[in-house]
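Renewal narrative, Specific Aim 1. Our central claim is that a sequence can be written position by position from structural information alone. The example that follows is taken directly from our test logs and has not been curated for this report. It begins with the structure tokens describing the chain, in the order in which they were read.
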């Protein structure tokens, strides 16, 4: 008699924390109730370059309620580590020393924290912050990438060799002269402005010292990394810093690394001998964390007349700060996405008086693929080949960058099913050939791709004698549904009903999680939870098997089935017992297993990426130039899907983020002042519901035996990638105008 094992993986499961979130029960960093908390407010520099000549805090100190004002003159001397510094730093590789906040008088950028005012109430701190008087010695700043491009330099290399995140300065594949030999060439330059993540939740920390130990309630995408960073800065043992971060109210990359605020909050709390809450204000968010770097990209494509790529040249210039080198995979997709025998990529950084940039929503690929897939569309038009057909002709059957087979790839299926759902065959080729009344209708498409990361991560699984279980890891959840996914992964591997398993996340006292980024949480933390669950149920079997009182005496793993919280013999399902029976008989309240999970050598044997195909229809007002996305279909191959509901939501969310990049998002720098002029949500535009058409986002079924034990690819970022190109291509189809500088706003069409 064989048992049917119920699987919860891939079913649409409601968020387990949904009720908590809509009732306010879910606590975000600044919402924790901490007794006797004082409030910190940052003071920011108002020049972009130079130094502080004097800083007068007398008036602020004598304002009502003020407890302390800390500047570089009275701050403790701290030790800011060089990065990289952590166990799997390759996901957030920034070379240099993080901003030595309040350590000296140097001003690197406008909006740099230069003081913190601590007061009894937030209002008192806010007011006193306005009383801090600063005199600067100003020097010439540079905030324009173009102005400094002659001083571009290759980024440091060596950290990420053989990793899919490798981002070498120069790569040549095949014939370096191939472009000049091509039958047809397009050669264009594309720019992407600075963009900011603009999550709903502000950067916030509550810092509390007790007997030399520090507790931080912090908004972070990487609990153990914040713990390690703050411990290093203050010279503490790691275990003397506890970081608690159960929920993150959106981040999109902005909280991948600890910025200045947790350090300043801890500094302030130590100074006033009280817990201090520090919430970065919305305007300050634009310089308190990094941003999508400003990039200038030249893409030259050469092809045969039948539309096969014979040469790709992609040169990318990206801005970084004065004191750190931030890199991202700007050119990585170009080396692997299309089957060209010849490919040259060249990556250069340009310094400026800005905060260090960092990953933002599909970092690197988002920017690189905008240029690449725009250029491919331009080439398709030059050759009079349908843009979808152009991509199919250049589909890569194996990874052109390293010759490895794909762990799985269903991009052709995404093209086919996406085109069908969208009605691509109804499209007419010529620009301006489709119209609906006053609207020019355009249809465009592009490819999205994102590399898959499995990082080292640890997890614990524990089964209780009452028939419940918990799975634990210190992972963050910034909104994709990690609490739910981990519960699903745990329940599946424990072979228990979903309602009997809980997850616990976001606390540094739990086993170490990998970064909640790079679309890698399910692959990494999920795999760790999966392995921990298998380990604990194996322990239970050993208990039973070694026990003459058990119906499972002598049974081996191969002879039993785990289902519904029971172990039973495959040969006779009536012979078995529940997990609770085993624990109770042994007088145990619970049994647990903790594993440190590691990737194997699969990324040496396979190239692992998720892919998607985006199809977008836009309507452009023929007189006004206003652009609306009117239909979007996005088909994705994302490996095995854990939770159909939250996964589809992530896919649609990525599309919306991509629409923002395509049509709205731009942080505008006033180069005369070296200062952002739209550092607020009124003038930094992101899509709202009214900007978003119906999005038909779906997964094509994909089995991947290689990527990780769950077969799950990351899906958090792949759908952002390619949207901007698809929109630009649709706008070209509608209007005949090729916009190579994001965002595509109506002024560029007039
Ligand atoms: Mo993601 S941009 O690695 O949070």
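The sequence written for that structure reads:
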């Amino acid at each position: 008699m064989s048992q049917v094992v119920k699987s919860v993986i891939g079913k649409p499961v409601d968020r387990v924390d949904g009720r908590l979130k809509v009732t306010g029960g879910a606590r975000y960093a600044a919402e924790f109730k901490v007794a006797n908390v004082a409030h910190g407010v940052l003071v920011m520099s108002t020049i972009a370059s130079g130094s502080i000549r004097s800083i007068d805090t007398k008036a602020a100190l004598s304002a009502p309620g003020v407890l302390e004002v800390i500047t570089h003159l009275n701050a403790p001397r701290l030790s800011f580590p060089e990065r990289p510094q952590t166990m799997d730093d390759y996901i957030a590789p920034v070379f240099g020393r993080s901003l030595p906040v309040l350590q000296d008088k140097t001003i690197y950028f406008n909006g740099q924290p230069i003081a913190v005012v601590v007061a009894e109430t937030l209002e008192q701190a806010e007011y006193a912050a306005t009383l801090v008087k600063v005199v600067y010695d100003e020097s010439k700043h540079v905030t324009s990438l173009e102005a400094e491009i002659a001083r571009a330099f290759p980024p440091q290399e060596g950290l990420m060799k053989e990793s899919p995140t490798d981002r070498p300065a120069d790569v040549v594949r095949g014939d370096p002269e191939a472009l000049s030999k091509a039958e047809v060439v397009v050669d264009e330059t594309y720019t992407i402005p600075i963009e900011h993540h603009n999550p709903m939740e502000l950067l916030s920390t509550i810092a509390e010292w007790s007997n030399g130990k520090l507790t931080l309630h912090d908004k972070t995408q990487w609990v153990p990394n914040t713990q390690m960073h703050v411990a290093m800065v203050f010279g503490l043992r790691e275990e003397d810093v506890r970081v608690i971060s159960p929920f993150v109210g959106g981040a999109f990359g902005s909280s991948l690394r600890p910025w200045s605020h947790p350090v300043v909050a801890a500094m302030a709390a130590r100074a006033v001998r009280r817990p201090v809450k520090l919430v970065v204000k919305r305007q300050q968010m634009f310089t308190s964390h990094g941003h999508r770097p400003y990039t200038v990209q030249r893409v030259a494509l050469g092809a045969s007349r039948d539309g096969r790529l014979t040469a790709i040249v992609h040169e990318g210039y990206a801005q970084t700060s004065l004191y750190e080198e931030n890199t991202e995979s700007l050119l990585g997709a170009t080396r692997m996405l299309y089957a060209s025998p010849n490919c040259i990529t060249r990556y250069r950084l340009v310094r400026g008086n800005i905060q260090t940039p960092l990953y933002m929503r599909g970092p690197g690929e988002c920017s690189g693929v905008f240029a690449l897939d725009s250029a491919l569309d331009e080439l398709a038009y030059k050759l009079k080949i349908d843009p979808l057909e152009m991509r199919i002709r250049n589909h890569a059957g194996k990874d052109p960058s390293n010759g490895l087979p794909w762990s799985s790839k269903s991009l052709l299926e995404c093209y086919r099913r996406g085109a069908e759902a969208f009605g691509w065959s109804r499209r007419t080729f010529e620009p301006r050939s489709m119209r609906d009344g006053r609207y020019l209708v355009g249809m465009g498409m592009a490819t999205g791709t994102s590399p898959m990361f499995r990082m080292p991560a640890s997890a614990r699984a524990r089964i209780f004698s009452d028939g419940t279980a918990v799975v634990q890891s210190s992972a963050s959840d910034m909104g994709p549904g990690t609490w739910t996914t981990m519960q699903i992964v745990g329940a599946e591997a424990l072979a228990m009903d979903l309602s009997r398993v809980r997850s616990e996340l976001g606390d540094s006292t739990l086993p170490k999680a990998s970064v909640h980024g790079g679309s890698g949480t399910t692959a990494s933390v999920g795999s760790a939870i999966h392995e921990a669950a298998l380990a604990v149920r194996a322990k239970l079997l050993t208990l039973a098997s070694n026990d003459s009182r058990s119906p499972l005496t002598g049974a081996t793993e191969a002879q039993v089935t785990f289902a519904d919280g029971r172990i039973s013999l495959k040969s006779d399902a009536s012979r078995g017992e529940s997990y609770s029976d085993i624990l109770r008989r042994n007088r145990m309240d619970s049994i647990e297993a903790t594993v440190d999970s590691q990737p194997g050598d699969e990324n040496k044997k396979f190239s692992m990426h998720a892919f998607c195909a985006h199809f977008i229809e836009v309507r452009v007002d023929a007189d006004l130039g206003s652009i609306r996305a009117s239909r979007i279909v996005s088909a994705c191959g994302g490996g095995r899907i854990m939770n159909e509901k939250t996964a589809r939501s992530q896919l649609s969310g990525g599309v919306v983020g991509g629409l923002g990049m395509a049509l709205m998002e731009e942080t505008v720098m006033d180069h005369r002042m070296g200062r952002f002029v739209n550092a607020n949500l009124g003038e930094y535009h992101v899509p709202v519901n009214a900007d978003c058409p119906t999005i038909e986002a779906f997964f094509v079924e994909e089995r991947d035996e290689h990527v990780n034990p769950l077969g799950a690819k990351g899906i958090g970022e792949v759908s952002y990638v390619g949207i901007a190109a698809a929109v630009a291509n649709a706008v070209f189809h509608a209007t005949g105008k090729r916009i190579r500088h994001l965002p595509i706003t109506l002024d560029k069409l007039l």
